[in-house]
Amino acid sequence: MTHATRNPRSSRWLAFVALATGVLLAGCERPPVDTVQTGYRGTGMEQVYNPRTFAKVVEANQPPDAQPPASPDGPKAKDIYQNVQVLGDLSVGQFTRHMAAITQWVAPQQGCAYCHNLQNLADDSLYTKVVARRMLQMTQHINENWKNHVAATGVTCYTCHRGQNVPQQVWFQPVPQRVRANFIGDLAEQNQPAETVGLASLPYDPFTPYLLDKINSAPIRVNGTTALPTGNLSSIKQAEFTYGLMMHMSGALGVNCTYCHNTQNFGKWEGSPPQRLTAYHGIRMARDVNSDYIVPLTDKFPENRLGPMGDVAKVNCATCHQGAYKPVLGAQMAKDYPELLKVLKTTSLPAPVSEPLFALMYFAVGSPVLEGTQEKAMGQLVQTMKTRPRATATISGFHSATGGADLNAELAKQRAFTVRDSLIAAGIAESRIVLEKPVETQGNVAGEDPSARRVEVRVN
Ligand code: HEC
Ligand code: HEC
Ligand code: HEC
Ligand code: HEC
């Protein structure tokens, strides 16, 4: 696990560094190594492979066999079962096959009981089931909407989980260790060899600034674009964070910098191999997945799954790639599970309301994400805010009557945040936005009413 939070002064850490260095020096780069030229002669564009290390990568990346196919005929899952919100349109046979597959991918030791109360399979009381349902939607979202990264290969739960409850490669926010009580002062998260950045003494958490937030992430630009040092406002510190991220990306894929760059000029896109563009989208995808799926699940997880700062384990390049240039070396696993390839909607949401001074947007079950036409409804609201520069938008979030009270209250809040963030992303000043918690956030009396899962916005 990529855990950048150890106290650098503890002797355990020192012992670990000594051991890790020993293992690294003993284990890799023993000659002979192979080089493969990937660009024009003289540009230094080559990949250096150690065939023995690569053999281990191959061994660790063998996909499991697909489940035997199931018939699409017969009654649908939503007609037979009580609480199927995502996979309802599968036949009962296909649904059962899917349950067998996710058990194999995520909980082969524990079996069905890992996510289910075996007395009542419809019950949502185990957090693992609630998380799994959202992961299901996340996997569909990645495969449908991030094709510019995952192509037709796509991902399954196995891509990240590999038969384990928690993916092996995840990241947490480190405990800040910025100030040291001597003349050196600010540590700026660096000068300590950290695994996250290939044991270099670069800032050891390049993830919080670059992979966490799909709206406010820092730009990954440090090179000047002119011959003279004019106009380039990037600091050395920014450059160090950028290099930290690049070390992670290289390590996660098991490649050298030249896999994505013509090192004659790191900043230039012309002349970069096409993999750089794939990586560019990968960065945006990781932000999107963390912002919209993983982080909003934080309060579902028990304490022991959270990091030292109380945050949930998040995704970086290594979560899927695990040392391979393509996860599971490009094995086409997802094609055997077409239900994972696109976002399936069993209940359609009501049409959003967008009137000049009032807007209503609806949300899917358990989701704080604006989807489809709901997202489009933001346009009118933004327009109103722009044509009335003195107006304020007051946003209130609501939830339906099913589910736990605490989780629901949080969900209503997250929905309001989503609308606020979309307004800010569209250029509306935060000072013009007010979040107002309604007296009663529950939008209906009983059951799963789609019109209850909403956000109301008043403009005045
Ligand atoms: C990793 C978590 C996970 C595992 C393991 C798992 N399930 Fe599920 N199961 C779910 C989720 C999530 C749903 C709801 C799916 C949806 O909303 O579309 C579900 C729903 C069901 C339902 C529908 C119940 C109802 O009435 O609503 C059945 C039946 C079921 N699972 C059977 C199984 C069986 C049998 C196994 C073991 C082979 C299994 N599941 C293993 C997560 C899991
Ligand atoms: C992009 C990577 C990724 C994919 C794909 C993915 N997961 Fe996860 N999963 C995670 C991360 C990250 C966590 C958070 C781990 C934590 O905080 O403990 C997680 C946690 C979980 C947990 C809770 C584990 C626990 O014991 O606390 C379940 C259950 C789960 N995932 C099920 C699934 C299922 C089912 C699928 C496929 C439909 C899936 N995941 C696909 C990354 C992924
Ligand atoms: C997997 C592909 C990949 C690998 C490997 C990689 N990079 Fe990058 N690099 C990128 C992408 C993509 C960007 C642009 C990111 C963005 O704009 O969001 C970038 C940006 C940069 C920048 C900033 C350029 C600018 O415009 O100012 C530098 C410097 C850099 N990389 C150096 C490196 C170094 C050094 C290595 C090896 C340790 C490396 N990169 C490995 C993909 C990669
Ligand atoms: C959700 C899982 C997932 C995450 C997270 C992820 N990738 Fe990927 N990546 C894939 C898949 C799947 C492919 C294979 C696509 C294909 O077959 O063309 C891929 C392909 C690539 C490729 C193209 C490789 C080649 O030789 O064509 C690059 C480069 C890459 N990823 C870089 C990154 C970087 C950098 C990050 C982190 C910022 C990242 N990926 C995060 C799933 C992921």
Topology of this protein?
Layout: H1 11-27, E1 34-37, E2 46-49, H2 51-60, H3 77-80, H4 92-106, H5 127-145, H6 147-150, H7 157-161, H8 207-211, H9 236-253, H10 275-294, H11 317-321, E3 353-355, E4 358-362, H12 372-376, H13 378-387, E5 393-397, H14 405-425, E6 433-435, E7 454-459
Parallel strand pairs: 5-6
Antiparallel strand pairs: 1-2, 3-4, 4-7, 5-7
Helix pairs in contact: 5-10
Bound molecules: heme C (HEC) (4 copies).
Based on CA atoms alone, the radius of gyration comes out at 24 Å
**What characteristic shape results from the CA principal axes?**
globular
Measured distance between first and last alpha carbons: 49 Å
Largest sheet: 5 strands, mixed
CATH architecture classification name of the domain at 11-60 and 169-222 and 234-321 = Orthogonal Bundle
Counted by DSSP, the helix tally is 14
Q: Output mean pLDDT.
A: 86
Helix amount, in percent? Answer: 25-40%
Major sheet strand order: 3-4-7-5-6
According to CATH, what is the topology of the domain at 11-60 and 169-222 and 234-321? Photosynthetic Reaction Center, subunit C, domain 2
How many strands in all? 7
CATH C-level category of the domain at 11-60 and 169-222 and 234-321? Mainly Alpha
Name the beta content range.
5-15%
Low-confidence runs: 1-10, 16-28
Find the structural class using helix and strand composition.
Answer: alpha+beta
